[in-house]
Fold this sequence. Notes:
alpha+beta, 44% helix, globular
Amino acid sequence: MSDLTCWMYISTATIPRAHAAQVIDAIVAISRGRNAALEVTGALIFSGDMFAQIIEGPAEAIAELRASITRDVRHREILTMADGEQNRRQFADWSLAYSGTALFVARELDRIRAARASEPYNSDRDLRRLLGELAL
Length: 136
């Protein structure tokens, strides 16, 4: 049994657009430090309207972060895309990969979220791939 756990989600942002850049900068700065201390790696996407994130690390650390993330009022409608053990880290070199907003990313998140009900496996794979391309 592996202690390496992963949680991947999409959520709807509640951040006013006028303050989004400052809020996201703060989230990234705090998360990078906290993730490194907890031995957690991952990636974050913010489209302006949605967040998508994958975090991976020790099960206890992922549970702690997940509880914190689900209480965060800066987003709502958290949709778990993947949750469970994994054999290796996909984002081993990143305490938190983040590169800013892009229209392409926003369209892809909309597509992935809409496809989740009818194609859960493909949606999980597509989101993991999108987050992975960010970290290259």
